């Protein structure tokens, strides 16, 4: 069974590994690209670990899942945003996504949040079903991922703590 750990500075290479794998395996699921993030150097990956609470799912030291959460400057003070959730295909439907989400929810409570929110690709029906099964609901708010492509409008889901 995978172990969930809070990623710190010494985990930067594992975060890089799983994040780049997620972007190459499921590029449509993220508002970021492998082409951009693959150019980040070690210093940038270490910086990313200070900008958000990152959690890794590790099996024998190998990352098989990842999620991050932080307070966005344009969000309410008591809201934390869940970002970049990804579980390796061979580890899906094992409860790992719920365990990673639970780590974020626990961290968000400790960080003073009363709500956790996320944006999800409308094309990702399995992801929407996952979030709904975990108690997240569509808020009616939308994020335009690419200003020049109206098909990239992602719904915002939220869950009170």
TrEMBL record:
Pfam families: Acetyltransf_1 (PF00583). SUPFAM superfamilies: Acyl-CoA N-acyltransferases (Nat) (SSF55729). Keywords: Transferase. GO terms for molecular function: N-acetyltransferase activity. The keyword Protein biosynthesis does not apply. The keyword Transferase applies. Residues 18-159 form the N-acetyltransferase domain. Residues 141-161 are annotated as: Disordered. PANTHER family: GNAT FAMILY N-ACETYLTRANSFERASE, LD18367P. This is Acetyltransferase. It comes from Brachybacterium nesterenkovii. The lineage of its organism: Bacteria, Bacillati, Actinomycetota, Actinomycetes, Micrococcales.
């Amino acid at each position: 069974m995978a172990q969930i750990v809070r990623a710190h500075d010494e985990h930067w290479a594992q975060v890089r590994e799983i994040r780049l794998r997620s972007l190459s395996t499921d590029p449509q699921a993220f508002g970021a690209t492998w082409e951009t993030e693959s150019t980040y150097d070690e210093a940038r990956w270490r910086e990313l670990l200070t900008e958000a609470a990152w959690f890794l799912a590790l099996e024998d030291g190998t990352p098989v899942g990842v999620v991050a959460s932080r307070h966005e400057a344009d969000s309410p003070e008591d809201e934390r945003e869940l970002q970049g959730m990804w579980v390796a295909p061979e580890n899906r439907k094992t409860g790992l996504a719920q365990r990673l989400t639970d780590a974020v929810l626990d961290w968000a409570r400790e960080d003073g949040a009363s709500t956790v929110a996320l944006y999800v690709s409308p094309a990702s029906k399995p992801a929407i079903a996952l979030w709904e099964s975990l108690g997240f609901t569509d808020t009616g708010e939308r994020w335009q991922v690419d200003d020049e492509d109206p098909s990239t409008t992602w719904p915002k889901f939220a869950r009170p703590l």
